[in-house]
Specification:
69 residues; alpha+beta; two-stranded antiparallel sheet; 2 helices; elongated; binds zinc ion
Length: 69
């Protein structure tokens, strides 16, 4: 499942850059075929996103518990 199945417009020249979301999240960089601009996730982003999601989930669970008690 490592096919480049998604396209993201290049921020510089708007050329569609083929990329794979799984690979992007794992830190793989992709390059614009037209101008060579690099598309990549800043290091640690996925970790921060995951933490934020977990905090949100905890908040929701806590609120649920408060409602019940
Ligand atoms: Zn480009």
């Amino acid at each position: 499942m490592d096919s480049l199945d998604k396209l993201i417009p290049c921020p510089i020249c708007r050329t569609p850059i083929p990329f794979n979301l799984e690979q992007l999240l794992r830190g793989t960089s992709f390059y614009c075929p037209q101008c060579g601009s690099r598309i990549s996730m800043p290091t640690g982003t996925s970790e921060k996103v995951r933490e934020a999601l977990e905090k949100l989930e905890n908040l929701r669970q806590n609120q649920g518990e408060n409602k019940i008690s």
